[in-house]
Amino acid sequence: MATPIIMPRQGQSVESCIITSWNKKVGDTVEKGEILFSYETDKSSFDEPAPESGKILAIFREEGDDVPCLENVCVIGQDGEDFSAFVPKSEDEPVAEAQAAEAAPAETAATVEVAAQATSSEATGAISPRAKALAAKTGADLLKATPTGPNGRIIERDVQSLVDRGLTVSGAASANYTTAVEGSGINGKVVLADLNAPAAAVATEAPVATTVAEYEDVKLSNIRKIISKQMCASLTTMAQITLNTSFDATKILALRKSLKAGAEKMGLANITLNDIILYAVSRVVLNHKGLNAHCLDETMRYFNTVNIGVAVDTERGLMVPTVFHAEKMSLNEISKEAKSVIAAAQSGTINPDYLKGATFTISNLGSLGIESFTPIINPPQTAILGVCGLTKRIKEVNGEDVTYSAMGLSLTVDHRVLDGADAARFLKELVFALENFDLLLTK
Amino acid sequence: MPKSQYVDPGKAFDAGYIHFEDIPVCQYNKTLKEELKLYTKEDMMRIYRDMAIIREFETMLNEVKVKSNYNGVEYNNPGPAHLSIGQEASAVGEAYSLDINDLSFGSHRSHGEILAKGLSSIHKLTDEEVYDIMKEFLGGAVLSVVEKHMKSENIKDLAINFLLYGALAEIFARKTGFNRGLGGSMHAFFIPFGLMPNNAIVGASAPIALGAALYKRSNHKPGIVISNCGDGATGRGPVLESLNFASMDQITKLWGMDGKFSDGGMPILFNVFNNHYGMGGQTRGETMGFDMVARLGAGFNPSQMHAERVNGYDPLAVIDAVSRKKQLLLEGKGPALLDVVTYRVSGHSPSDSSTYRTAEEIEAWKAADPIVAFKTKLILGGVAKEEEFAAMHESITARMTEIMKLAINDEISPRMDLKKEPDAIASIMFSNQNVPSMDTTREPEVLMPKEECPRVKEIANKVRTAKDENGKPVSKMKMYNVTDALFEPIIDKFYEDPTLIAYGEDNRDWGGAFGVYKKMTEAIPYHRFFNSPISESAIVGSAVGYAMCGGRAIVELMYADFIGCAGDEIFNQMAKWQAMSAGILKMPIVLRVSVGSKYGAQHSQDWTAICSHIPGLKVVFPSTPTDAKGLMTSALNGTDPVVFFESQRVYGFGEEFNKDGVPVGHFEIPFGEPDVKKEGKDVTIVTIGAVLYRAMEAAKILEEKYGISAEVIDTRSIVPFNYEKVIESVKKTGKVLLVGDACERGSVMRDMASNITELAFDYLDGPPVVVGSRNWITPSFELEKSFFPQASWIIDALAEKIMPIPGYVPEQNFTEIEKIERSKKGI
């Protein structure tokens, strides 16, 4: 009995995933537990193991395909077995049937990509005046548009979809752009360079083949696209202001030193400076509710709990897993939880539900020697704390210059809902807490 | 249907006979000697002069038409000239005893009547009166020409020049004509002399003249009304309807039941210039069966309309008859009918080659020329000598030549310059005034204080929203609905404007077929509010005449489908007279029509397209109580003709959109302003009429099932219409559907779709799509859902023509192939 493999649904809000790579091809034999293919959501990536042993009878979706969750992706079975029953409907009749199945009452329906429509309405080059105007304004790459209007007409939503997917053409390139090419610019934008290479080759047949390519085109990953969109959205919708300060890290460095020595004996985690800052923030930020909040259109949602997002540098790009209810955790518990979610994010196996719900974010570039920076807020949050590296500073104590280790803090807040003084007050209390961390711990 | 009059089966079948009185046929037989006791020599010579002036005027026009030359002056007149050579004695005889309070309406062949009544008025007015009239008319524009460029012996002489010049300049389409050249030969008129509009539509003056008589009768004004037409016009429905309408029993039996307002019968004389031909059709012997026009009188009321046949070739016989009829009318014994026998020696128009009559016949009538006969009579009777007539003719010819030279001089008598003043005509299409009362000098005649009117009391206790404060639907009995919303401004106007009059079929006790006037009978007297006969032409035509005289009328046609029965009155009369009079006339008429459903093909059609196509009409179509009240208030305060569309689907509806309910006090909704009934961002749905509620249903489905946010805009007005709000919405959504219950082909929705395409082309994400009824007959109620636009059709059209909706399966076929096929078949 052949077994269909579906595209799993990773989290309630996930509707589809992109297949990033296939480890097997049709006809290959697989053992139970072997990785069949890898896929990613907009937030993380996963590997799909074979549920049982057998032969790959069919593969319905290729690398790069965006596959609706729960839809069949491939079939494992024995030679000669019939798998026709498992052919996904959308593969069969991409237009009407797939849509009928999707018909659900969805607030997304209006903006949903009606890609499948394209097959029924052949592209005719027709475009509505409105879509044309939007394309002109946004530089959308119309050659890549999938018409979903009647009679193959490109309508507004089709252009919007291109813009949303970053499929645009630069102004310089647009004049000579007649055949769709992969864009190499930011977010996949087609730039002049994308046109010149093949065009020049055709026109002059020279230079023949250069031994070393001058560049390499790499398609943006889904995660990169999401990051790009979110960062731009953050900066275009908020009035962000960054305040820089530093604090005397003498006490936390001393604590860190003693922890390092005694952690094992006490059964404590390997508590880092970052964990200490997480702890201090989890205690202080509740006194500054404006910074532990979401700005939702016309209302503010103030949280009574502190869910700290921790920015993590991963191979795929920036990810921000969440440490939930940090205000209720001990320093040790915070340290353990932070390590666990960071590891999951880095390995790409994190549950997508852990990638949302933060009320405040901390981004630490201290280990890379950064002295100050302007972190970008993750909407709808209202603040993000940047943690910088340690530097030696001098201060006057009893008329003598004394050196000490200072750590930089860069706080960005949303000036629409918070004023500079609000942010400064938070920083002042945070600095006091960190400089007197022993007192905070005993509290 | 008044309950005061019992229809008794015990008497309805009584045996007996209908008795007729003899109708006098050319019974006038006074001798000149007898007449000289009534008329001085000057009177006789003036009668002669007036006939001679008319003859010369018509001769001049004929010469210009056929030879492009009159008395050595070259001119080409491309316009019409329906001349009345031969009919002068009839015209002068009629005008002789009329004064400026007596209003006369005529036909396409009325130059003679204009000149005759004008000359008669000039004779009767004092020098001061006549000079003031000339000075005030069009700011002295006509007067200044004759004052400056002609020598006049005295004021009366000046006034004759004024009359001849004003009429001729009008015929030659000059700006210095009586109506700025916008009326022309067939429509010239001059109200200060009681010369009301003449009409190019045969018989159309009859219901208009009836309306003028109604105005006099209901507003107790002095004088009588003359409705002139030819014998051919007696075959026209509107003429026959008017004869009956003027003869209605109720005028003498019911109007003024309490004795308070009784003025007697309708003061109108239907005067038929019986020249024996309706164009080329011979009425007596060929196209009619009455033998003599006078016989008609016997068909309309027991007094036989005091009908008489008179010798129209003898001015004294005509004067005798008209004077007697005028006396009868002033005594409250109207209406009256005269059959004035005459003959048109000239053709119907200069292109008439008289194929329908023999040369002998024409020669015989020429030999009986009434002007020559009258001259001979005066000479033989020793009243005047041949030389006096010769001198008179010489002076008339000289005067006419001079007048003609003035009227064709482009410097002195320029035409309207539409290049220099491109809005000259546009600015007079509507008067656009706000006049709450057409006569502020009188108190309105009513039967009780407004507060005591049973309907007013009933409405005071109604809930003015569709749902109560808890969101529960208000019971039908307690809910203020669209009929109440229409009633309120109307009853208010009855107590504000003494000239307001309302009528139509079954208006009074029944309250109109749909109950808008329910329980108003107790408050408003008969002469302001009555049941008309089933005579749509006369209903609308009389409203036109009523308004021309300075009154305000609200008339009702029950179903919109009956517009066809009053086609000429709505489309040629009500619509056009403000502009044809160069803005001299106002037309404060509200014509109520109701779009039906359930009653099949001849009682369910939305005729907005036809009305909005005709320039000069304002057209509105409210669908909510607030809009109905606000637009009716505006319509009743205005001075323009309004076709007020209502829908039988929504008469019982309460206010669903305005949360505060329908405002209690006076408020206007300006014409032309559409209303956003629901805001949205993805698609715009523009509605005309009651389809609003189906559009709201579609919007709900789109929103709840497909996440598409629709903006619904109710046009409310059709003419005028401000596109700004619609364009603003289309710029936002890029998608627009136009929905209405009218058959799709040639509909207002089509017109709007085309305009939106022009105005918002660059913002469109698809073509503006029209969803109207099928181009069929309206089927029975049970099949209507396949004919009228439904909520699902709106979604179908959006999905098939503008923006496919994932997961939506359309029911209706809106594809292009289907559209072309339907169009090929004309369905």
Describe this structure in words.
The complex is a heterodimer of chains A (443) and B (827). Among the domains of chain A are: 90 residues, RNA polymerase II/Efflux pump adaptor protein, barrel-sandwich hybrid domain (OB fold (Dihydrolipoamide Acetyltransferase, E2P)); 204 residues, Chloramphenicol acetyltransferase-like domain (Chloramphenicol Acetyltransferase, 2-Layer Sandwich). Chain A has 13 helices and 18 strands. Chain A is globular. A six-stranded mixed sheet of chain A has the order 9-18-17-16-12-15. Chain A has a four-stranded antiparallel sheet with strand order 1-8-6-3, with no helix packed on it. In chain A, 34% of the residues are buried. The longest helix of chain A has 17 residues. In chain A, helix 10 crosses helix 11. About 10% of the residues of chain A have low confidence. In chain A, a hairpin with a 2-residue loop joins strand 10 and strand 11. Chain A has 443 residues and is an alpha+beta fold. Chain B is an alpha/beta fold. Chain B folds into three domains: 376 residues, Rossmann fold (3-Layer(aba) Sandwich); 197 residues, 3-Layer(aba) Sandwich (Rossmann fold), CATH 3.40.50.970; 151 residues, Rossmann fold (3-Layer(aba) Sandwich), CATH 3.40.50.920. Chain B has 27 helices and 22 strands. Chain B has a seven-stranded mixed sheet, with helices on both faces. A six-stranded parallel sheet of chain B has the order 4-3-5-6-10-9, sandwiched between helices. In chain B, strand 18, helix 23 and strand 19 form a beta-alpha-beta unit. In chain B, helix 3 runs antiparallel to helix 5 and helix 8 packs across helix 15. Chain B is globular, with a radius of gyration of 30 Å. The model of chain B has no long low-confidence stretch (mean pLDDT 95). The chains are: A alpha+beta (443), B alpha/beta (827). At the A-B interface, helix 2 and helix 4 of A face helix 23 and helix 26 of B.
